[in-house]
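Notes from hallway chat w/ T.B., transcribed later so I don't forget. T.B. wanted the structure written out for a chain they're using in a teaching module, and asked if we could keep both sequence and C-alpha cells in one place. Agreed to drop them here.
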Amino acid sequence: MRPPLVEAMLDPGFYPHRPKGVRLIETHISWVFLTGPYAYKVKKPVNFGFLDFTTLKQRMHFAREEVRLNRRLSPDVYLGVLEIRRRDGEFSLQGPGEVVEVAVWMRELREEWRLDLLLESGRVGQDLWDLIAERIARFHGEAETSPHVASFGEPEKVMVNVKENFDQTEPFRDMTIPRGWFVDLRDYSLGFLAERRDLFKKRIRSGRIREGHGDLHTENIYYDGERLYVLDCIEFNERFRFQDTASDVAFLLMDLEARGFEQGGWRFLNGYLQYSGDFELLQVLRFYKIYRAYVRGKIESFQMAQKGKAAQEKARRYFELAWRYLVEERPRFLLASCGIMGSGKSTLCMELASRLGAVLIRSDSVRKLSLGIPPWEHRYEPFGQGIYSPEVTDSVYRKMISLAEEVLGAGYPVILDGSFSRASHRRMVSELAQRLGIPYLFLYTQCPVEVIKERIGKRRDISDGRVEILEEHIRSFETPKELPPERVLSVDTRGPLSVEVIREVKERVR
C-alpha cells in the first residue's frame, strides 16, 4: 500500500503546471515522479547503514546536497528543493500548512537520451566519447579537494570500503560467487592495499583525491544530440564520494565492459588520459575496476530475496568480471605513428587503440600539459617557434617515451601518436622497445596533400596543425628510410581503417 503522500503526488492536480499525467519510478531509497517537463524526487525515510534518511531534517539536508553536487555537472537539470506542505490533510507543493516533506525539483530528460540505450541502438560515435572524456576530466580537475577530502585516499580508509564488500558477501559464497574467486579477490584487494601503500600516498600528493561523482555509469549519463548531462552523484555518504578520481573512471569502464562495449571503454579511457594527463591512474585502475565490479555483484546478491534467480545470475556475471580483471594479462607492444600533419595519424591511432585495447599517448596533449596549458586550448605559433620550438619538441618526445615506459610497466600496450618526423625521435621508440624486449612498429601514414589540406581545414581537435604551416612541415619531415622494413607499415589513410590493416598490425606485433 502506497503512503498518502505518494498517492497525492500521482494526481496531476498536485502540480502547479497541471501535467497530463504522472509516472512513478520507485527505487529502494526514493520515489521519482515524472510529469513531462519536470521530475520530482522524494527520499524515502529509510536507514540502510550507509545512508540514513529517517528524519525530515536529514532528508532536507541530503536533498540540498543532491542539488549542490549535481549542479557541478548538470546545472540546468537540478532546479532546486521544494517544500511539500500539509493542511487539513491535504498535501501541496509550496502551499500553505506544515512542512512535511521536500522534493528535489529537476528538469525531466527523455529516456532515449540515456547512454546505455544510445549504446544498444548503435547511436554513439567518437565525438560523444570525446565529449564525455573531456567533461569528466575537467570535472575532476575542478572538483573540491582539501586535507579532509584527501584523507579518504589513505589506504586505511580505502580498506574500510573494500573490507566491507567482502564481509557483506560472505553469506553469498558458493551462491553468487565461487569460494575460490572470493578468496582470490579478497587476498588480491587487501594485499594490494598493504603492499602499495606508497602508490596510494602518491595519489594523495598528486591531488587525485577529489569530491567526485561516486556513481558514474551509463544509466546516469544522457546526451540529447548536442548537450551532455551527468546525473545522480552520491550525496548520502561522503566516503563513497570522496575518492580517487581513478575510481570514477573505473566505474564507467567496468559498466561499459559488463555491457559488452569494451571498445567504447577504451575510447573513453584514452580521451580521459588525453585531457587529464593522469597516466598514473593506470597503476590503480585494475584495483578499482575489481572493486567496482565486486560492489555491483554484492548489490545484485542483496536483490536475490526479491528477484530470485535473475539477480543471482546477474551477480555471478559481475563477480566473473571482477575475476577476469584479476587474471587477465595483455600482450605488451609499442606502436608509433609517423607522418605529416593531417595525414590521419590521430584518427588511425585512436581507432587502433580502441580495437587493440591499448593506451594512447598523444604528443599534442603531452606538449600542452607539460607546459601547464589545457589540452583544449589552442596555441597557433609560427612553425618551429614557441611551444613548437625544436627544444620543446625534443622534450615532448622524451616525455612520451618516459610515459610509455611507465604504462608498459603497468602492463598495458602503448600507441604513440605524433609526427615522429625526425630520425632521432624514432630512435627513442626502437631503443625503448629493444630495452624492454617487446615488439614495436611504426605506422607510416600516407595521404595526398589535397586531402590533407581539406582535413586540416575541417579539423575540430586539440591539434594546432593548420594549412599555413603545412609546407614548412613537409620540407622538414625526414622520411623514415633508416628503419628496417619489418618495423614500418605504410597505411593509406584516405578511407576508414580496414580489417586488413588491423590484421597486419596484429601479425607484426605478435
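Follow-up for T.B.: The longest strand covers residues 78-87. Might be a good example for the class.
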